[in-house]
Design a protein that fits this description.
This protein has one domain. The longest helix is centred in the middle third of the chain and has 14 residues, at about 30-45. The protein is about 30% helix and about 0% strand. It is elongated, with a radius of gyration of 18 Å. By secondary structure, the chain is an all-alpha fold. The chain has helices at about 10-15, 30-45, 65-70.
């Protein structure tokens, strides 16, 4: 989603081998959003079943730096010490 790789998860879905082709909804955020979408559509009868599959990476950055920046309200400078110090 944020890495600029739209529909990059399709290669993982292809390994499941869904036959016949299915009407799929591409949720480009998080598996929690896909679960929420299924939770809304199931009771309305719009869909009968849902397969929620998710995988992800927390950030494309260096984890120690990301953890130090995430609590900075202005994201101007890292809040040191880092997460390990």
């Amino acid at each position: 989603y944020l890495a600029g790789r739209a529909f990059s998860f399709i290669s993982a879905i292809d390994s499941i081998g869904a036959v016949p082709p299915i009407n799929e909804s591409h949720v480009e955020m998080d598996a929690a959003w896909a679960l929420y979408e299924a939770y809304i559509k199931l009771p309305t009868g719009e869909i009968d079943t849902a397969l929620v599959y998710g995988f992800g990476k927390s950030s494309a950055g260096i984890l120690r730096r990301v953890l130090a920046l995430q609590t900075d309200p202005y994201t101007v400078a890292p809040l040191w010490p880092d997460s390990v110090s």
